[in-house]
Design a protein that fits this description.
The chain contains 6 helices and 9 strands, in the order ααββαβαβαββαβββ. It has 221 residues and is α/β, with parallel strands linked by helices. α2 packs across α4.
């Protein structure tokens, strides 16, 4: 089966099942070639609904996870978004399509090899409103703050305080919180000096590295 047909079938499944109902998110998926964000030997599996290996022992999340998170961000055109843990650059590329040319995605990646890999993928895919920055994303990216939306694409032992501080009032932060046995995908809505949180489901992400990462939690237990 050709990649285009596999892609269409996956999109049809999401729509028919109701798993993904946001048409803008589906359109973004259809416009971004996931095969450009995986290693050469996995291109034929680009539209399998499961994670795939990428450099530095990390993974690109399964398509359903990427789209569920994108939908949960409740994105609008022109928004400024921070992603922590860019990896392959695929999540940033999907977000970039939803927020449009007036919006912008700043994606951080602490592993230099992955930062280079992800940035190269974005350029190959023709994504112009996203940038990958090599830094400790758990600390946020103060230079471009505040953000309308923040998403963390790696598991955290707790929600990093700097990210809440860099989120606009009324903004949304999505982060998987937990340990090696799985995490609760948590959506935080900032309201003045406080916040409301809700759990979106159980997921399994690679651990966040850096100051607010796994030094506080042993992922090997």
């Amino acid at each position: 089966m050709e990649l285009a047909e596999k892609k269409r079938r996956l999109a049809d499944y999401w729509l028919e099942s109701g798993i993904i109902s946001d048409k803008a998110v589906i359109r973004a998926f259809m416009h971004v070639p996931r095969e450009l964000f995986v290693l050469e030997q996995y291109k034929s599996e680009a539209y399998g609904d499961y994670p795939l290996p990428i450099p530095a022992g990390q993974t690109i999340s399964q398509p359903t996870t990427v789209l569920l998170i994108t939908q949960a961000l409740e994105l609008k055109k022109g928004m400024k978004v921070l992603e922590v843990g860019a990896g392959s650059g695929y999540q940033a590329s999907i977000i970039s399509k939803v927020i449009g040319s007036r919006g912008f995605v700043y994606a951080t990646e602490i592993i230099p090899e992955l930062s280079d890999f992800g940035e190269k993928n974005l350029r190959r895919a023709g994504i112009k409103n996203a940038l990958i920055v090599n830094c400790d994303g758990g600390r946020g990216y103060e230079k471009a703050s505040p953000y309308d939306r923040i998403v963390v694409s790696a598991a955290c032992p707790e929600i990093p305080a700097p990210l809440i501080g860099q989120l606009k009032d009324g903004g949304i932060l999505i982060v998987p919180v937990g340990g090696s046995m799985g995490q609760k995908l948590t959506r935080l809505r900032k309201k003045g000096s406080g916040a409301e949180t809700e759990i979106l489901g159980d997921f399994a992400f690679v651990p966040l590295k850096g100051k607010h990462g796994t030094n506080k939690l042993d992922f090997q237990k």
